[in-house]
Design goal:
Layout (H helix, E strand, L loop, with lengths): L1 E5 L3 H12 L3 E6 L15 E4 L5 H6 L7 E4 L4 H14 L4 E5 L3 H10 L3 E3 L1 H14 L6
Parallel strand pairs: 1-2, 1-4, 2-3, 4-5, 5-6
Amino acid sequence: MKIIILGCGRLGAHLARRLDHEGHHVTVIDRNSDSFTRLGGDFQGTMILGTGIDEDVLRRAGIESADAFVAVSNGDNTNAMAAEIAKLVFKVPRVVARLYDPVREDTYHALGLMETVCPTIMGSDKIHELVMSPHPTK
């Protein structure tokens, strides 16, 4: 698959390395060139310096033939906008955005514009499960 990832923080870099090692064609976009060091020396994909809501940057990244677009920058607004552009303008078949704000995540999920991941909700659910589950006996 040809996959574009917006954001080369811990999550974006980890996902990019994983997909790259699985043999996918991965392109990572980030505004900060220092972020690309997280990818390591064995990363075989492409690195694009720029903003993920800039259509020219997205074209340089190959969005017109991408199978998937993943927005995991550190900003909900950027992720939502970039994901909408990928889905609505470039017709990328699979678009996923990380959104920290649960209200925003619910809204975009309800509109069906993209698939969303909300670590706030996921973390809360997991912590609730751990706190409320019976402790094993020793």
